[in-house]
Amino acid sequence: QALINKVRNTPGVRRALEFHDRGEIVNGRREWYHVSRLFNRDEMVAQAKLAYDMQWYFPAIRTISQAQYWDDLDIRFPMAHRDTLVREAKVRGLHSSWVFAITRQESAFMDDARSGVGASGLMQLMPATAKETARKYSIPLASPQQVLDPDTNIQLGAAYLSSVHAQFNGNRVLASAAYNAGPGRVRQWLKGANHLAFDVWVESIPFDETRQYVQNVLSYSVIYGQKLNSPQPLVDWHERFFDDQ
C-alpha cells in the first residue's frame, strides 16, 4: 500500500487522475502511459493496482502486462460490466465465461475502443454489423455513436455472437474464429475437414491474428469460468472434432 501511495503522488500519475476525474479519458490514458515508462517493475505493478482499484481496467491491464507480471489474475482478467455481461449471455443462451473472454480479447475492457478498420466499443462491432444486429434482434440503436455505450455494445455483441454460435452448431471454437475473421472465412478453412481435431484445426488457421485470438479466447474462458464459479473445460465434447460445413 505504501508503494501504491507513492505512485499515486507522482506528478504524472496525479495529472492522469485529474484528466480521468474530468472525463478526459484519452488525455488521462496518454499521461498514464507516459509516466509508466519512468517506473520500475514494482512501481508499474503498483500503478496497475491503482488503476484496477479505480475500475480503470484497460490501463490496469496494459500496465500489468508491460510489467510482465502474470500472477495477478484479478487485474489481468477483471469482472468489468459483470451484471450486463452475465445478463446478456443468459438472454442469448451463451456461457458467461465465453462472452467475458471475447470482450477481454476484443478491447481489454476499453469502453471507447476503436480499431483501425472501424470496429467500436467493448466487443468491437463494425457499423454494418451493429446496425443489422440491432434490426434483427430489435435492440434500440438511435445513432452509430450509441454503439460506444457499454450496455448497448454488450447487448449487440452478445446477440451477434449468438448468431455466429448458431451458425456453427454451438461450437465456440469455430464461432470465436468467425467473430474475429468472419463466418465465410471459417467455412473456407473447414473445407475438406473430416473429423479433424480442434487443436490441429486451430494451428492450421492461416491468419496469425485469428489463430492467436482463438487460443486466447479459449484460455480466457477457462479463467473466467473459475472467476464466475462456473468452471468450463477448454472445449466441450462436441467441440473436439470438426467436419466440413
TrEMBL record:
Residues 6-73 form the Lytic transglycosylase superhelical linker domain. Residues 89-199 form the Transglycosylase SLT domain. Signal peptide: none annotated. Pfam families: SLT, SLT_L. Belongs to the transglycosylase Slt family. PANTHER family: SOLUBLE LYTIC MUREIN TRANSGLYCOSYLASE (PTHR37423:SF5), SOLUBLE LYTIC MUREIN TRANSGLYCOSYLASE-RELATED (PTHR37423). This is SLT protein.
